Amino acid sequence: QVQLVESGGGLVQAGGSLRLSCAASGTIFRLVGMGWYRQAPGKQRELVAFITSSGNTNYADSVKGRFTISRDSAKNTVYLQMNTLKPEDTGVYYCWSPNKWGQGTQVTVSS
């Protein structure tokens, strides 16, 4: 059974940084693409960043140049480094792998 466990969320001031981690188990990690989504209050869940099994990446326009997704196959973990955070980055961030969501981690950016 696939499990995704996120960590690293919290409260940060605008301009600050956070790094989210998603540890995966029960899946052949190196063979699957992984993604980070977020959901702000009253809004739909949206894709933030995606990384393929070969390491190719894709980002939402709103985070390009500020966020970096990466993966460590030795640790079965995908990361989201978030820099120059803005209040509009506030939301619950979810890790995704095929057919599985993590439980989510709250990110709050104060102005």
Describe what you observe in this structure.
This protein is mainly beta and 111 residues long. Helices cover 0% and strands 53% of the residues. It is built from no helices and 11 strands. The strands form 2 sheets. Strands 2, 4, 5, 6, 9, 10 and 11 form a 7-stranded mixed beta sheet that branches. A 4-stranded antiparallel beta sheet has the order 1-3-8-7, with no helix packed on it. Strand 5 and strand 6 form a beta hairpin. The chain is globular, with a radius of gyration of 13 Å. The model has no long low-confidence stretch (mean pLDDT 95).
Q: So how many helices?
A: 0
Helical fraction: under 10%
Total strands: the figure is 11
Mean of pLDDT: 95
Strand content: over 45%
- What is the CA-atom radius of gyration, in angstroms? 13 Å
What is the string of helix and strand elements?
Answer: EEEEEEEEEEE
Features:
mainly beta; 0% helix; 4-stranded antiparallel β-sheet; single chain; 111 residues; 7-stranded mixed β-sheet
Gist of the model:
This protein is an all-beta fold and 111 residues long. Helix content is 0%, strand content 53%.
Note the topology:
Layout: E1 3-7, E2 10-13, E3 18-25, E4 34-39, E5 46-51, E6 57-59, E7 67-72, E8 77-82, E9 91-97, E10 100-101, E11 105-110
Parallel strand pairs: 2-11
Antiparallel strand pairs: 1-3, 3-8, 4-5, 4-9, 5-6, 7-8, 9-10, 9-11
